[in-house]
Amino acid sequence: MEFINKIELQGVVGSSYSRPATKDNTAAQFSLMTEYAHHNPQGEPVVDITWFNVLAWSSTTNFPVETIKKGDTLRIEGRIRMASYADQYGGLKYTPEIIAQTIKRL
After folding, report:
1. Helix (H) or strand (E) holding 66
2. Do residues 85 and 45 touch, judged by C-beta distance below 8 A?
3. Residue 95 lies in a domain
4. Do 89 and 45 form a contact (C-beta atoms < 8 A)?
5. pTM of the model
6. pLDDT digits 0-9 by tens, 53-106
7. CATH number for the domain including 72?
8. 9 and 50 in contact (C-beta within 8 Å)?
């Protein structure tokens, strides 16, 4: 049986930073905003905004991730994973994170 974990996003980059992971590989972590326009039950227009945390490596995506900057419009295909971190009280928290497999600048 094959299991599928795939996501496709198109949106605008919020914050972004990159760092060399190895000599020939750079890692980038950035936020991506998507919008969904619809009408509420009263017929008024509504725009839902969703933010995603994205992690990408230049070797995996074949994209120069160090060039990603705030305001870029990107199309991303990847998978979702749960990342964990310690909060200010030492408790363990989990958040969804997108691992990019392909990136295209629009």
Report:
1. none
2. no
3. yes
4. no
5. 0.86
6. 999 999 999 999 999 999 999 999 999 999 999 999 999 999 999 999 999 999
7. 2.40.50.140
8. no
